[in-house]
């Protein structure tokens, strides 16, 4: 089914999911353009996995809707859609070869040559029972199944979990390769560097709500870090918290960092008036943006001031 190029591959409209009194996802709206790699970031319990389950009919939304290529999810779409869950549930009594045979019989798009190439790539033993596979090997097996059907839409929940660095790179290369061929990929990862390397767009969730979304390069260009060191303990910069461009100020001993929306020149000048040993303006990477968005209480630095600033 070919869709108009302007039709998003996936549209999430005010998705809400409650488990009893627990609000797992609240009024989430996202649009994933066709042929893009979309990264979903969030701390543990942010609602990422629940979002994926609601997208794929594995959990019933309390409110809201999800559409694929402008239409509700229907069984035929799974011929063109692949899902790798965070916790794989494979038939442990089967061997790798038997599972591939089941995949061949189940999907008309299954490519035996592609599957065997991927088995070799991840060094998986076709004769070994899946119950004897390590966690990383089970993840790799699930990835083999997903990519072997040449899907047009991939939903991957922590697809590199348990894999060594070499195989993590293979996963990123596979994701990028599928997107280059026209597929749409949505994936989550706690490895922010992986998302920054592969994703064109990202969304950051925290405590079930969407906190930030946009194109990675645009988000990075809009935000700067002004970093200064002093000969003694850094002075209080509380006066800067009123600046509309300032999102957060962090102090740790002689070091201070100010997270700024915009080019940061004016903030750097004001800090320079306090006679630091050095002051410089740095680009924020995706990890900086993530920590600023969800709050960096888990980092080594304590936030003296946390401003909303529309973030």
Radius of gyration: 22 Å
CATH domain topology of the largest domain? Rossmann fold
Provide the low-confidence segments as ranges. 296-311
Q: Can you count the beta strands?
A: 15
Number of helices: 9
CATH homologous superfamily classification of the largest domain: P-loop containing nucleotide triphosphate hydrolases
Identify the CATH class of the largest domain: Alpha Beta
Chain-wise SSE layout:
Layout: E1 10-19, E2 22-32, E3 37-42, H1 48-55, E4 63-68, E5 71-72, E6 81-84, H2 96-106, H3 112-121, H4 135-147, E7 153-157, H5 165-180, E8 184-188, H6 192-198, E9 201-206, E10 209-215, H7 216-222, E11 223-229, E12 246-252, E13 255-261, H8 265-272, E14 278-283, H9 286-294, E15 302-306
Parallel strand pairs: 3-8, 3-9, 6-7, 7-8
Antiparallel strand pairs: 1-2, 1-4, 4-5, 9-10, 11-13, 11-14, 12-13, 12-15
Helix pairs in contact: 3-4
Concise synopsis of the structure shown:
This protein is 29% helix and 30% strand. It has helices at 48-55, 96-106, 112-121, 135-147, 165-180, 192-198, 216-222, 265-272, 286-294; strands spanning 10-19, 22-32, 37-42, 63-68, 71-72, 81-84, 153-157, 184-188, 201-206, 209-215, 223-229, 246-252, 255-261, 278-283, 302-306.
Distinctive features:
Alpha-Beta Plaits, five-stranded antiparallel beta sheet, six-stranded mixed beta sheet, 2 domains, alpha/beta, Rossmann fold, 15 strands, about 300 residues
Textual characterization of the structure:
The protein is α/β, with parallel strands linked by helices. Helix content is 29%, strand content 30%. It contains 9 helices and 15 strands. Strands 6-7-8-3-9-10 form a 6-stranded mixed beta sheet, with helices on both faces. Strands 14-11-13-12-15 form a 5-stranded antiparallel beta sheet. A 4-stranded antiparallel beta sheet has the order 2-1-4-5, with helices on one face. Helix 3 (112-121) packs antiparallel against helix 4 (135-147).
